[in-house]
Each structure stands twice: as C-alpha cells, then as structure tokens.
Amino acid sequence: MTKLIQTLIIGLEYGCVYSLIAMGMVLVYRTTGVLNIAHGGIGVLAGFIAWDLNTLRGWPYFPAIGAGILVAVAAGLLFERFIVRRLAAPALATVATLALFLLLQGLVFVVPWWGNTWGQVFNSPFANKQVAIPGADYSVSWDQLILFGNVLLFFAGLYFILRRTRVGLAMRAVSDDPTAARLMGIRQKLVAPVVWGLAFGLSGLTTMLLAPILLLDNTSLTAFTLKALTVTFVGGLISLPLTVLGAITLSMLEVSTQLYLPNVKGLSDAWPFLILIVVLVARFARGTKALEDTAVAPA
Amino acid sequence: MAYLGSRRLFVLLTAGALASAACGGSAAQRAALKVQSQNQAGTNAAAPGGGGYSGGDAGASAAPAEAGAATSDVAGSSPGAGASSSGSAASPAAGSNSAAKSSSAAAQPATRSAAGSSGGSGAQSSGAGAGKVLPGGSSGPTPGAPTPGGPPGAGSAVGGATDVGVTANSIKVGHIGIYSGPVGSFGDDLSYAGRAKLQEINDSGGINGRKLDVLVRDDAWDGTKGMNAARDLVEREHIFAFCCIMSVNTSDPLTPYADEHKIPHIGADGWGEPQYKGAWTFPVSASAVTEAHMLAKYQAEKQGAKRVAIIYINNPTGRAYVKAYEEVIKKFNGEVVFSQPATFDDPGTTTFIAQARTQNIDTISTYLDPGIFTRLVREAAAQNYKPKNAFSGAAGLYFQVTPNFTGPNGEGTIAATHWVTNDMDTPGYRAYKAVVEKYYPKIDHSTWTKGGFVGASIFGNALKSLGLEVTRQRLKDTVDTLSNFETGLGPNISFSPGHHRANKTIYLAQIQRSGDKFEFKYIAGPLVDEYAETN
Lengths: 299, 535
Hints:
The structure holds 2 protein chains of 2 kinds. Chain A is mainly alpha-helical.
C-alpha cells in the first residue's frame, strides 16, 4: 500500500510537469500550427532573470518571479513580431523555436555577473516545508503542492479561455481555417501575439515552479520537454484533456516501473518511445486525411 | 497542408530528440553553448605569436584566431558535425545536441586554414616537416598512411618528419574533450586543464624546437561521437598521439583502437576498467572501481554502514562501480540493498529516495554527475529525508560547485578523488593551479582537471626525453618504463609493460559547513586500493 501511494504521488508530480509543458505546446500548435520547442530556453531566460533580481538585487521573491515571467511574455511577443511573422511556413517557425532554445541555453554563460556556471540555487519562501502523507512513508514539499495547484489552474484557465471567451474562439477560428477567420473579421495579427506571449509566459512559470524543487540550471526544462513532446501526440496535438491524460499516464508508467520492477533496468526510459510508437501507429493507421481532420477538431 | 507538414516535422523532431536523449545525449541537457569568454581571454592573452598550439574553444564561441597563433579546431564529433563525414549537422538526431557542435563545425574550415607554424592539414604536415633527413632515410611518412609503430621508412629522420603527425617544427596531438552533451556545462573544464599544460609547454619553447599542434574535438560525453572524432583525428588528420582525454566514454573504446593502430594514448582518464587492458593507453587517474572499493571500505569501517543503496549513471563504468562497492561492503558484512540506474531526464531520483527511505538505508552511494546528485539531495530534502550516514559518491561529485547546490541536506557527503584535495593546498596543488588558471582563470578544480594536467605533463616530459627522434614506438616505450613521475598532486605515476594501473590512490573529501557556506574538506587519504587488479 505504501508503494502504491508513493507511485500515485510521484507519478502525479511528474505528470504535472509534463502536462504544463505539453499544454503550452498544444496551445501554440493548435492556434498557429507552429511547434514551439523553445520552452527550455525561455525557461532559462525567465528563471535566471528572476534569480538575478531576487538573489543579486534583493528583490522580494514574488515580484522577482513575476518580472521573470513578464520578460518571458515580452520575449514571446518580440519573437512573434520579428521572427514568426516573417517566416512563411509554420515549419520554418518551428525551426526558429529550436534555434531560440539553443541560443538561450547558452545565455547563462554570457552574462558576466551570473558566475559562468550552469546552475543556481533558487529557493522559494516555502523551502524546507513539507506535508507528510499518512500511510505512505513519504512527504510532499509545499513547492510540489504549488506546482500541482498551478497545473490545475492553468488547465482550467486554458480550457475556459479556448471554449468560453471571444479570444479563445478567435484562436480556434484562426487555427481551424485562417482564411475563413479573416473573412469573419478576425485579425490573426492580433491573435498570434496573445498565443506566443501566453506560451512563453507559461515556460517561464514552469521554470519558476521547478527551480525550487530541483535546481535552476540551463537545462531545467529540456529533459522534460522531450517527454512533453511525446505526450502531445496522445492528445493529437490539439486535445488538452488527452494531453494531460497522456502526461499522467507516462509518468505513472515510469514511476511504477522504477518502484515495482527495479530490476528491469531500462524499461522506465523506454516508455516515451513505446507510447510514441503506439500513438503514431494508431494515428497513422487512420490515414493522413484523418490527421488533417484532427488538426481542426474542437478541444 | 501546412499543418500536415508541420506535423511530420514534429514527428521527426520528437523522434530525433528522443533518440538523442537515449543515446546519452539527453542532449541539450547541459549542452549549452558555453561561452567561456574569460577562459578564452586568458588563452588569447597568453598565446604567443607563432605558437603551434591550437587553443580552441567549444562551439559558437570559437575563438578568434590570434595573429600568428595556431588555430582553434574544436569540431563536433557527432555524425554530421565537424570533421566526421557521416551525415549532416542538421540531422534530427543531432538537433538537440547544442548549437556548439554545429557552430564549431561550420567554423572548422576557416580556422584550420589559419594555422600558424604547424597547424595544417595532414598533407601539410609532411610538407612542412620534411626537414633534416638521415642518410638513407625516407623523407617522412606518407600522409594518409599512418605508420604503425616505429619511424617510417627504412631509416629514421631526426628532427624532421620522424613519424606520422610529426614535422620539423610540430607534433600533431589529438585531444577529445566534453564540450557539450549532458555534462558539457562543466565537462569542458576537464579538458581545459590538460590543454593549459600543453599550452604552457608551447609557451616555454615547445618540445625540442617543435610546437604541439593540438587538435581538439568534442565527444559530448558519448563514446560513439568520441570514436568518430578519434577516427577522424587518426585517419584524416594523421595525428601523432592522443593526450589527456578525460572522458571515460571515449577513453574506454579508444583503448583497443589505439592498440590496433599503435597510437600512444597518454594520460587517459582511467575511470573505466577497459583502459587498463591497453598496451598503448596510459591512464593517470584512478578507476571508478577503486573509488567504490575505498568508499565501501571507509564507510563500513569508519561509519558502520551496513545497508547501502546505490544510484548510478547507467553506463559500463557505473555498473562496475555498483559491483565493486558490493564486493567490498560484503567483506564487512554489509549489503547493497538495492541499486537503480539514473538517466538525465527521468524521475528516478524521486523514486530512489522513496525506496531508500522505506528500506531504512544507512548510506546512499552514487556514481553521478553534480547535476543529478543535486537533484537527488534536493529530492531527499523535499521528502524530509537523509540517510543515517548521508551520501557518498565517485569522483563525479568532487566539483567545487557541488556543495553550493546541494545545500544543508548535502552536508556529510563523502566524495572520492584521485589527487590531493583542493583544501589541502599543497605546494604541488598551488603550482598546478597557477599554470591552469594562467590560461583558464575560472576553472572548477576537480579530479579530472588534475588528471588532465598530470597526463599532459607526462606527455610533455616523455616527448622531451625522446630528443629529436620522435616516434610513436619510442614514446610508448618511454612511458612504459616511467618510474615515480612526481605529479605534485599526491600519487606518483609509474608504468611498466602490461601494468598500466598507475594510480590506485584515493583521497576522500566531505561536504562540511564553513560559515554560511558548504565546502568539500579533506577527511582521509591517501588510501591505496588493496582490492584493485594488478594490471
């Protein structure tokens, strides 16, 4: 029973991380057709700026992380305005996000007063506070609980925005049929910045939530991004509920393998591949027409 | 259709990224373009005009070539990057392996052509080096046809092209470092120390009139990439020898290759056991097996550890570490209760801590890099847990940066290192530090920075002792009989034919509180591994 509870808690924790990143990817993809893989890089930018303000300049914690997230949002707006908008095809913009990711990863070594080191300790005010889980011989830190709460909030918020607001409707309209959306008076040039700003802000937020748990380093999100890429496939790149479900499933499989089958070395690492293969086979079996159809399906 | 095209690209990128991660790249993890501006500034400032040293830096920060100085020549060794001819730099699998490799690959042709007195292509080596030839001797080795063993031709050329990679005024040396990949963020320091020593040799006149032309490659801590680089250095660049490679994932597979091609590999890292089986490979640092032996013995004897859990990077050296620790702890009636492999991107540390807590573990021993170890300790703190005897680990923990990251929960951690600890501040350490920091002022002094330095020192001394007749066979024979080489950093180094395990010494350092900071402090050593194999 102890092991089962541990599996559920740890699986949920990492599922939240995968979900948060994957939702950002889905958001950008379904509204612009671009696969934003710059999450790791944007997170580094936002995280180190927040750390700089808090640790080196004495800002209080929350204004510092707020400023870091705002910088990420601004980066999103600038990236959309000066890069994405000038590239003709979403595929090109996707490559541009990869370039941005690599560029920003190296940022930590460029700023002289950041110490030329790959990581920094960036604790939250809730460091060293835990909640013991009864019957699990396990404790969860406040930082982990905050992470979990943020995922729920973001999921609900994003779902609400896409389904219940005019901005969300415009996003979906542009995603479904840009030409028709234009004819209906929706200006894509106004929708796209919102999406990119939101997505980059989410990357910054994810880093802020992870840094106190792990460490603020120049690859904080990179490893998770790779797995988030996998789970976006579960949701067909458009469905938020399925994406979250895929994220939780992947992390549960990883954790249960490590806890219940510790001697089966390597299986845990194989799960993303196995899931990816199953999802791709299942989706491609339906034919490319079906793939095109799912790109315009409702949330 | 745009969506469909994008979707296909997504499939490719995802598959590529995952494949890269699985191949040990976890890729862009710590694979940043580490712009070592201060290092480069030091290098450039110190580089004399006309020096033969290829003072390259990794990646996009590729050093601008100083006037008259030899070239920067770091190239990604992965397929598609740098000199390797297979694939393109933009291949999906290489995509996440940092821009460093791509950039340096692009920079390579330009930097090569700017060579000073010695740096040039393989063809250039023989041309420029065809100097004084002994009567009856050949004019030098044929480019593209490495000459195994002794000097080429029937006679020996003294002071000229005495062997492959040697000219009248240069000796071409291959060096493979860790400039990207999962440990690239601090792996480059391991390379810089050896390179600093080689540069110092050049700055002080070189090797009997010849400058060392050091060709640097990046393996991203990936043996496949490392071997691609090695083959390129040997078969295309026609290097004379390898020097001070501090990447176990490359040094291990390079050992049989060096034997096959009879190329000296001086100053290997020695972390992996396969390196001790090579006739042409001369490791200077100790093995991970020796670390495990000494840590297990110390923790059993001094701390009373009985129940141990081990988490390790899942490579052959990591698995050897687990086996060796288990062998010794059993001699003291202890046991390894469970072990778990770790990768750079999975939640293994969380589940590992959960298990350790449940199973009442005395100590957690690790074969990890500072990044994963930090995660482990912080995970333990989040779970309000610390084993009775805290943590211990192989030399991968012994970086100055580690205690800062682990925080209070890391206090008490014991790390193995193969040389005197930094806080011992011996005269030898100060001398080493002065040389290294002259060229790379902000280096993190670890086990392998010292190992690289020692390897380069042995290499330089042995070459000097050869006089003008520099051949691979003579270098190998000379190092093979090296006796009590004074490193100044603890153990002296001796080799004999068939016995290349020169360093069986371990020092132990512990993370202790020092004011409001945490630092590694010396606690034991030198401890000589009595369980080590005798080869």
